[in-house]
Amino acid sequence: MARTRLYRNGVLEAEDFPVETIAERLSDDEAVVWLDLCKPTQADFDLISEELGLHHLAVEDAMKFGQRPKLDRYRDHLFISAYAVQLDGRLGRLTTSEIGVFATPRVVVTVRRDDRFDLEEVVARWDDNADLAKYGVAFLLHGLLDTLVDGHMAAVEELDQSLESVEGMLFDGGRTSAHAVQRRSFQLRRSLVMLRRVALPMREVVNALMRPTLHVVGEPMLPYYQDVYDHVLRASEWTESLRDLVTTILETNLTVQGNRMNLIMKQLTGWAAIIAVPTAVTGFYGQNVPYPGFGKWWGFVASITVTVVMSVALYITFKRKDWL
């Protein structure tokens, strides 16, 4: 599955034309082409490698998914590896979709393993900012990177909201089990670790693109890339702070469990002391030897009175001390 676009002098002229005609269309120095390959085959890579003169190491990285987000510079083109993310808020599970990007002076090629990342949003951004299309490859890369980074920001924000709900679960009066809090915390922590793994290296990618030595981003597009870089920094720092917050939640959960256990033990100890009184009294009166009141009705009354008075006294004492 391939999708193509042709811009000439900053104006969209053609879409979905055959890949084989790219070289012919690039004969005009004012033409800029975007090509998207979804689930590419070896034949697709051979074709674009021949058409665009791509380095075999860059092609190898694009074929073997699972790369770290990075920017590799070759003699006449760049290779960028990046990730789109999606968060299932109900499960707290983060999924990623890797995207490889070849960038030559007049061609941008995006390579996707699957269609989980919908490029329609990227295309919509290009169309909404058509006045910037005259800046060619820098314009195309900006639309793609801006969409990816905004996805990182949206995932971080949703994770933040999920962690706020977990904080509420910690102090809901015991209506939520500690196991549920711990399980939810570990799910969010795993998603945060995965998000950090794909979001943090994007700082290097965007920062490298803005270097004058690459001759990719000109002065007019520099503020737009700076805005993307600011979002990258914010997403990275937000991810780091949320990771610390998850650790704090886990530690707080253990502390709350310990406090609840201490309270339960205190209550059990109080009730055990109260129960020990009638046990001691009835045990004394159950001796097989004569004692004051043995065989008399007032002896029974005396034992009941002692039991009730001492039990009530202990209950009142423990209640005042907030042990019960």
What this model shows, in words?
With 324 residues, the protein is of the alpha+beta class. It folds into two domains: 2-257, CorA soluble domain-like (Beta Polymerase, domain 2), CATH 3.30.460; 263-320. Helices cover 57% and strands 16% of the residues. It has helices spanning 22-25, 42-52, 56-63, 120-128, 137-170, 178-199, 202-209, 222-285, 297-320; strands spanning 2-8, 11-15, 31-38, 70-73, 78-88, 93-103, 107-112. The chain has a seven-stranded mixed β-sheet, with helices on both faces. A hairpin with a 3-residue loop joins strand 6 and strand 7 (107-112). The longest helix has 64 residues, at 222-285. It is rod-shaped and about 120 Å long. It starts with a strand and ends with a helix.
Give the key terms.
alpha+beta; seven-stranded mixed sheet
Brief sketch in words of this structure:
The chain is built from nine helices and seven strands; from the N terminus they run E-E-H-E-H-H-E-E-E-E-H-H-H-H-H-H. The protein has 324 residues and is α+β, with helices and mostly antiparallel strands.
